[in-house]
Fold this sequence. Notes:
The strands form 9 sheets. Strands 16-22-21-20-19-17-18 form a 7-stranded mixed sheet, with helices on both faces. Strands 3-4-5-11 form a 4-stranded mixed sheet, covered by helices on one side. It has a 3-stranded antiparallel sheet with strand order 6-7-14, sandwiched between helices. Strand 1 and strand 2 (87-89) form a beta hairpin. 40% of the residues lie in helices and 11% in strands.
Amino acid sequence: xxxxxxxxxxxxxxxxxxxxxxxxxxxxxxxxxxxxxxxxxxxxxxxxxxxxxxxxxxxxxxxxxxxxxxxxxxxxxxxxxxxxxxxxxxxxxxxxxxxxxxxxxxxxxxxxxxxxxxxxxxxxxxxxxxxxxxxxxxxxxxxxxxxxxxxxxxxxxxxxxxxxxxxxxxxxxxxxxxxxxxxxxxxxxxxxxxxxxxxxxxxxxxxxxxxxxxxxxxxxxxxxxxxxxxxxxxxxxxxxxxxxxxxxxxxxxxxxxxxxxxxxxxxxxxxxxxxxxxxxxxxxxxxxxxxxxxxxxxxxxxxxxxxxxxxxxxxxxxxxxxxxxxxxxxxxxxxxxxxxxxxxxxxxxxxxxxxxxxxxxxxxxxxxxxxxxxxxxxxxxxxxxxxxxxxxxxxxxxxxxxxxxxxxxxxxxxxxxxxxxxxxxxxxxxxxxxxxxxxxxxxxxxxxxxxxxxxxxxxxxxxxxxxxxxxxxxxxxxxxxxxxxxxxxxxxxxxxxxxxxxxxxxxxxxxxxxxxxxxxxxxxxxxxxxxxxxxxxxxxxxxxxxxxxxxxxxxxxxxxxxxxxxxxxxxxxxxxxxxxxxxxxxxxxxxxxxxxxxxxxxxxxxxxxxxxxxxxxxxxxxxxxxxxxxxxxxxxxxxxxxxxxxxxxxxxxxxxxxxxxxxxxxxxxxxxxxxxxxxxxxxxxxxxxxxxxxxxxxxxxxxxxxxxxxxxxxxxxxxxxxxxxxxxxxxxxxxxxxxxxxxxxxxxxxxxxxxxxxxxxxxxxxxxxxxxxxxxxxxxxxxxxxxxxxxxxxxxxxxxxxxxxxxxxxxxxxxxxxxxxxxxxxxxxxxxxxxxxxxxxxxxxxxxxxxxxxxxxxxxxxxxxxxxxxxxxxxxxxxxxxxxxxxxxxxxxxxxxxxxxxxxxxxxxxxxxxxxxxxxxxxxxxxxxxxxxxxxxxxxxxxxxxxxxxxxxxxxxxxxxxxxxxxxxxxxxxxxxxxxxxxxxxxxxxxxxxxxxxxxxxxxxxxxxxxxxxxxxxxxxxxxxxxxxxxxxxxxxxxxxxxxxxxxxxxxxxxxxxxxxxxxxxxxxxxxxxxxxxxxxxxxxxxxxxxx
Length: 1092
């Protein structure tokens, strides 16, 4: 679909554009980027040819185009046009060849469905709907005053001190200079009886400060001041008294121009309108408004402004400064009192002085009010006879852009704005060419929403980063307070010197008070989210260097990555919290001759709904308190930081300062994760592929083995399309195979009706725990250390975890007497123990229960009438099958003929399958009544069904290829390689870790992890305490910062008081390099925190 910002032509033009340059003789694209653009255009052209005519007509409708000049007429520079009207510009491609700024082309190329006819350097290509924002204010309500924070006292003190030093040194130089080199001060001293041209005091600021920083101001530019701007590079060899151009140019991100809705474009609807306006009216009105300089365009523009404001009439002038300075004296006289805010513009102060009044508060480029007032001002304002009339080119642009904001209605009798503008206010020659998107106001709405997002995002983000900004978050002009003039100068220069240069406005004394120097960012709808991110990264880095973050306390600040990643949520949260309103100016009474309005309106009401001001935002006080207690260590602070490092490593700039070149995710058993890269089992993926695209079952005989095709057909006959819901308990055909697998493993029958397929084992664990917890006194026995899933679920369901401790000295064995001790203690404390969780093989320990210990646990569960929850997802991860054997609890319960209520869990995420992302698993209930099975079925029905992809994975798990089948040899080879690699890595890592000082590691018999113990050092404990971290958490954080290895501290799994551990996966390939990095870090850590 076409972009709403795409400014496509409606038809080819027969007249060449007056803006065109000589065509280049270059026959085609000049570099790789241009060729890619041409290929994309050819693709779109072919799509258009093959599409139905109705679709073609829809796609050919431009969103904002007043003529066809984009393809030919208004081409600025040498260009090439494609069959779809989309163009690429050789100026752009030449920029791209030598451009390292990332400004000339989007970092993410648009898809073939996203058609942009704007130049990216003028109006950024951004089709993401999330980067739009809408908010409507209720008429009659008021804004809450914007909060203005104060900087620390030392900032004010050093700022005043810097000015004092400057004044002392400056006057000292003047004093001696006038006596040593009087010829340099002739203009400041009386000469031949004539007074000095200026006093030394009046020129002091200009001579001693401004000239030193003049490179920040009046920078020569060329081209369009749109999203980017091109600077003509210049140098000075005499301390900025004179400059000479170097002949080079620099394209920079432009956040200095007043281009709010982004209509500063050399191509597009407004440019086309301006061209036709010039053809009709010429370049100038050739006179002031009262001397033949008024045209029909002036009158139509003024009527349009009045309609937009909701006033009876309006008067426009050619300059905003002149609007204030020439009009104020016409309506006030000496002794008049004009109310103003303290931050008004110089033009207002000039107008007040000329009128003899004392103060004034307003701004703008037009005046709106009653007809009586405006009629008087047309004659009495000084702009009437003396100021040049607004040129036809500007008037045409104003009318065209306002049409896109207001929308145009053929109906002549429309109400006041926000009703559309009546047809009569638009020149006939212009109205006839307005496209539907322009007439209905969708173009203006889209631009306003982009501007609203950019403005609020930048303002809130700067605050979150710790800066002090003035004004409301909705304002597109955002002042960032720097305070110290030296830092202001450095900030501006450093912004321009970045890899992506950024042009900003530096504002200081006398435009502000001495201690209110600031940068001013002027945002535009032309900017993209990526542009604002670039600006934020620059501000964050430079602001840290220059110490200008004086807003929220350091501990409450967000990182730049947090700000960028959470931008959308940040805006939504702010909207809910703000509860703001705007003071809407009312239309002046027709009886009043002295009331008038000076105002600049950026955007008006485009929202379809109004925020309910009475409803408070959802905060932590209104959510389930148990949610706040949930912690999940394997996906917590360390994992989040590791992901940030991954993003940082993607760019050269981000790699600077890091001590590693990749992140190793050793924090979670996710075998196929990028960087761990365990190869998926071929057979399961082949079956999945065939079921994803069933026609392959017939045509893929040369690609897929016969047994994979047969399996897929068999499942397809039972399931049908995997895009449909299945039975809520899981596909009966697959549950039957799970039952057969259990019977083959244990030698006891299994009932498919007691088996529930799930979205991974975790979903089943959460469901069963939720069912068992009947009151706040319900307790669940869990091993320590344990997998954090259990404590997280218990916290969420308001249950009590009852810990029993594994014996590290015996290879993390489970001691039945320790389990019984925990049961008795819990009962004595009033806890109703409901279930016993056993993880076998163990996570995070890797321990394997022998049959004797498991038998004792079954007897304990029977003795205390506990439900036994057997987490057996690692049952296929036994490293040495000659020494250790996995025995399921289902087998033992059946062997003992025990009445123990048992739930056994299994998953496709672990073992050798490693299909974590497919979310497949199952649980089997033993010794459960039919009523409870029916209750569980009712609960799983609420979620409709487990994922079909996961269910298919379960079928392949419990029915692997059999010996003699075509896929068996490869399956055997792949699974053996995974087993051998895990066993080998586990052995090597255990030996190397045990050789380190202050570290011991019990050998892992199974699963995917090692759980080494680290000796906690006194200095380490003290340092961790100051950071508010557990000692092993501090260890893990430093390990990540130094090596890129992400591990999980033992405090996340549970451990005895005073101990420290961390969990590592044994899934990381390149174990030698991996463990060597860990060794170097550990030795350095112990040297740093060990005894002197």
